[in-house]
Description:
The protein is α+β, with helices and mostly antiparallel strands. It is 33% helix and 22% strand. Strands 2, 3, 4, 5, 6, 7 and 8 form a seven-stranded mixed β-sheet that branches. Strands 1, 9, 10, 11, 12 and 13 form a six-stranded antiparallel β-sheet that branches. Strands 14-15-16 form a three-stranded mixed β-sheet. The longest helix is centred in the middle third of the chain and has 11 residues. It comes from Amycolatopsis eburnea.
Amino acid sequence: MASVNRVFAAQLSGLPVFGPDGESIGRVRDLVAGLRLDAQPPRILGLVVELSTRRRVFVPMLRVTGIEPTAVTLATGSVNMRQFVQRPNEVLVLGQLLDAHATLTASGTRITVVDAGMEPTRTRDWVLAKLAIRERRGGLGRRRSTMQVLPWPEVSGLGLADLGAQPQGAGQLLMLFDTMRPADIAATVRDLPLKRRHEVADAMDDERLADVIEELPDDDQKELLAYLAEERAADVLEAMNPDDAADLLAELAPADQSRLLELMEPEESAPVKRLLKYSSDTAGGLMTPEPVVLTPDTTIAEALAHIRNPELPPALASMVFVCRPPTATPTGRYVGVVHFQRLLREPPAELVASAVDTGLPPLKPGASLAEVTRYFAAYNLTCGPVVDTDDHLIGAVTVDDVLDHLLPEDWRETGLHDTLEEHRA
């Protein structure tokens, strides 16, 4: 083990993990500690490491040979690939201790845990020796207290029963999420205890929560949506991509589906209702109704400005769709597409009409998943138009939506590799 006196948990979050030969293993997502019945600092049992397949595995601390500011290094040996499952006597340091409410043992002062520092012992163990805390002060206009670092025994109220019963904020955890992609946040949220998961959902804004829900497995999506108050659930559905919102609503009972659609703003629910008319395994069910649609007299420069939008998914930015007005789906007469590479090669002042690819056949909304897959493979596309029988563009299918439906239903939970049925060390 590299000589380190103290490491705070928040510093480890997201650090890359490498094997002894420099091979990439994954990233640190949490620390697992074993809580004790007495007041002594809990021992760090190991790390929760997220592999490239999104599978989260447990790595014992005895396997860790180096902790640096930029990476964690493991000793020689195989990594147990079994999915991490939290045991009854264990606590997730980032997922459960951060933002926990406790008291100072001597004075009874109420405090909030901001971070936790682990230190090595002479026996090569690591323990949560220190806690970074902030005093909780009520009332308006009160100054925010300064942070202190105290030994573990000076803080009480952090037992498993305490953590399971008390309300807990999510500010520190959300700060860690700021540097993570929605898919990684979703994987973290899935591993949290149910109460903690709900607290995190309560603390997120609607847009961020919508991004995370889109990356959760179906059962977790439904559970989280059911937890939310109906008005907020409708707001979150409005913030989701219409195709993802339609997929989620399609899993609900008809009465729940209708009630949530009624609570949504009409302009937000309209495209979702159109998508719900199609089977989920057809082009109409897979498509998004919000691609980049331009009229023929739009300039190349304007088209490039549209696909530079950082909020536009890469697959949708791969082409623009040229249609007669109106440009909202269902559009006027469909003309064709312009691939973004063609846009890069044309003079900015030229019109997109001069660069339209009219030879790419569009998909029909009733095209099966197999037909859509062959279409993408045949034309080497990441996005394709869906046009109805009246020659109106009604949406676009992206390759990520196709992959979502081609992969096994539990791919978000298990990854793409076989698991090794081994007991955790």
